[in-house]
Every structure is written in C-alpha cells, then in structure tokens.
Amino acid sequence: MADRRSFLQSALGIGAGLFASRAVAEPAKSSSSHVDQVAARGGYQGVSSGSLSKVDTHGGPIVTTPVITTDVGDLPYEMDGDVKVFRLTAHVFKQQIAPDKTIDVWGFNGSAPGPTIQVTQGDKVRVIFKNELPEASSLHWHGFEDQIGYDGMPGISQEPVKPGESFTYNFLIKQEGTYFYHSHMAMQELAGMLGAFVMHPELPYRPHCDRDFVIHLQEYAVLANSTTPNTMMMEFNWLLLNGKAGPASTPLIIRQGDRVRIRFVNLGMDHHPMHLHGHTFYVTGTEGGRIPETAWWPGNTVLVGVAQSRNVEFVADNPGDWMLHCHLPHHMMNQMASQAGPMTRMAGSPDGKGLRGDDSHGRLTARGQNGDDIKGMAMSDMKGMDMNASNARNDLSIPSAALGAGEQATAPDGPLANTQLDAGMMGMMKEQAKNGPKLSALQQRNLDAFDMGDESMKAQVSETSPNANNVPNFPQDAYMEGPMMNMDKLADKPENLGLRPNWSRFMQGMMTFVRVLPPEQYDEVVSAMHKANRRGDPYASLYTASAAVRRG
Question: Domains of the chain by range and CATH?
C-alpha cells in the first residue's frame, strides 16, 4: 500500500512539473488581447464552407457595418457634449402598407415601425419622447439592463406621459445586440408603436458582415371597408415586413459573395418561422445579445417568437432573387376574409355545381340546400357582361345552363367560366367607370397600373386546370386566393430592377426578396437606387460603401 502511495505521489509530482514547465515556456495569452475579446463575444474561431463559411475574408481594418432597415430608415441624432440625443414623437398618421392600400396607424416620427436607433457600446444616450397621441403613453426599452426609472412601465417605474407632454430617457449603453423599443400600452403596440434599437459592439463582430439588415414582423386586423386596425381581433389579414406587405416590401440588395446578417424583430401576436430560400444560415444572436460561436446552429428557417429577436448570418454565394418569408401559409396572403353568399362561387368559378354550397366545411351541396336560390337575380342589367351565348341555355354541359337546372356541369368552359367571365368583368368595370364618380389623378394612375389586359388574363387562365371546376376544395375559402393581379407597375422601385415580369402576382403578406446579384448587376441596381435620390433613403449607407469598393 505504501509503495502504491509513493508511486502516485511521484507521478503527480512529475506531472505538475511538466505543466509548470509548459506554463513558463508558453505563457497564456493576455485576456485583453483582441482575439480573446472577440472570442469571448462569440466571434470567429472555426471554419466551414459555402453559405456557412466562418472564414473572415474581409481585407483591411474591421469596422462595424451600419444596419439597414428597409422601408423604415434610421432616427437621426444630435450631439450634446458627449451625449447622443434622439427625439421620438408618437402620433397618429396614414401609412401605405400595400399597393393602393392605406391605413391609419400609431407610430413614431411618421413611420410604423418607428425609425431604427443605432448606438455603440459605451455611448451615452438621451431619448426625448414626446406624446402627440390622444391618450397617455410611455416607452419600454426591451432587453435593456439599466436604471428602473427609465424602464418605461407606466404607473410603476414612471408616471404615464400625458398627451402633449414629454419624458426624457437616459442610458449608458453597456450591452451589445438587437433590442427594441415599444409602447407599454398593449393596444398601442398593436397599432404600430415599436422600433429597433441596435447596440453595436465596441469591438466589431467576427467574421465581418458586409451587409446588416433589420426586419420587423408585424400584423394588422383591418376589417372590410375600414382603414383602422382592430387591436382586439386575434385573426390578422395584413402581414407585414417593415410596415409593408408583399409586393410593396423592398428587397434586400446584396452583392454576390458578401457575408450578410439579418436581424428579425417580432413584436406582434404570432410566432413567425422565417424561411430563406437558396442559402443556409447560422443563428448568431437573440434579444439577449451575441451567441457564443460554439452554440451557433445552422438552418434555413428560424422561429422568431413574440417579443424576441433572432440574428442570422450567411455568405450570399448563390446568385438569384431568393424568397424570404414567414412559412405560416396564412401569412403569405393579403386581405384574407371568409366568403359568404351564392355569388362567391358562380358557374365558371370552380366547384362544378355553379353555386357553392356553404356548409362551412367546404362540402359540395346541391342548389337550394343552403338558401342559395338566386331566382330573381337579373344578370341582364349588368352591362358589359356577355351571358347570352347561343349554346348557353339548353346544353347542360355548360356551367351556366347547369346552373339554371341545378345540375352538375360536365364541361369546364362556358359563358360564365373564367375565360368568358374575365372579359365580361372588364366590360362591366369600364361601363361602371363611365357612369361612376370621377377618379382623382392618383386614383386613375393606380387603377391604370393594374395589369388587367389580355396577356395578364391569359396568364391567369393558363395557370388553372381545365377541369378545375369539378375539383373539391378549389379554390379555398378565402378572399385573394391564388395569384393576385399583376402589380409590377404599382410596386415599381429601383430595388426591383431586373425582376421577372409578373413577379408581383406571387408576392403577398410577409414575403420579400433577398436579391443576391453578380457584381455587374449589383452595380446597375445600386446605381439606379442612388440616382432616385430619395429623402431618408434607408439604403444611404450602401452607396458610400459601394463607392469605397469601386475606389479600392
């Protein structure tokens, strides 16, 4: 026993000596070194390839890339000594959220979401909040570790800010990451009162990102013929990215080969699985800051929960106009509303019976079972509708004749089917336009921008199977189902330069593009964006960076 004890003591002594020698020969790196500080914050350590590459190929000094919040922009600041002073005003205004769709929102400085605030770790910040709402409000700074007096909880950490009054928030920025500000009056938040607050790290992240974007995930419930969001409803029919629904949302413009960061912020009522086509990303940050690199996880879909932010990073090495969207099916649609009544599924509108049996379960029912009798409806009064084709009255294979007999149509086409009905609808609309109220120049321009010509109609008809009338559950029970009208002209902007014709028919709700462009095409698009000379252009920082690349 004594021999064994002596052996262990001897071995441990030798081992300790070896470790001590190594410590002398190879001194530990200083904890203040740049590499260690970066690693501690979850910076570059490993290597991978393709979209998931962690290799930092950025040449020259590493600097922080400004964040771009498409369709929103930044909140400017002024300096008061060593303090950055921002001014936020809450008020009610109208905002266009989709082509020819404007609603009343509550927001900040003319924007909902409010403008993005960008600061750097170590900054002293003052935010002067003015309330121009019709009721009291306050601002909560989501995720901030600061003094209780500036937390923004009305009646708890501060008095509510009454209409016409102001309150000043003061912060010393100690954190880094993607945070946000919002009203702590719940219904005000649902009306649009939120914004991003980005704290850049004192030492820039590694690997370096060439592009950095913020995308807000929002939803509104706007009832038919209303412009006011209903903040009590739990079902939403307008789903937005940065305050815009597809096809109005502005694409992310990226040069092929750039490393990209996207910061998703969700302050709505639903969780959103955000999916990127064509690339794989790492999830690198949350509303708690940067995730250590060893804990990054790969994917192409990230679930952004309510009151959360998620940062993803990838190398944009795959050229193309790639979709970025919420993968909940209802969130890829606009203006969803249940249909009711017999006119929603007439002959020629697929279900094969001429009328939709509305039993709320999509089951087909014979005419009359659900009060769908349309005797007395005089179609002859609707000018421009050609419903008197010679074979329409007696041939039961034609949907319009089957309609009158309450029989199943055996042929897919006829005077009331899509190919005839589209032209008839156009005639009726033109006739109504002649006799209806005069449109303003803007209204007329917007109406003319809808592509409802022969080519557009033919495209829609060609995308429907000839026997679609006889297929159950087609189309589904929602307004705006299937492709929309061509809105390319209404959604025209430099960022859309070079997209395929008719692209807008397939962009709805929480959908936008990540446009990964080869250098030549990238320069062409960015040049067009710069020449547009738009006031408060969120992409302004991009033009400076592009000019620097060209000079280099």
Answer: 77-335+512-551 (2.60.40.420), 342-470 (no CATH)
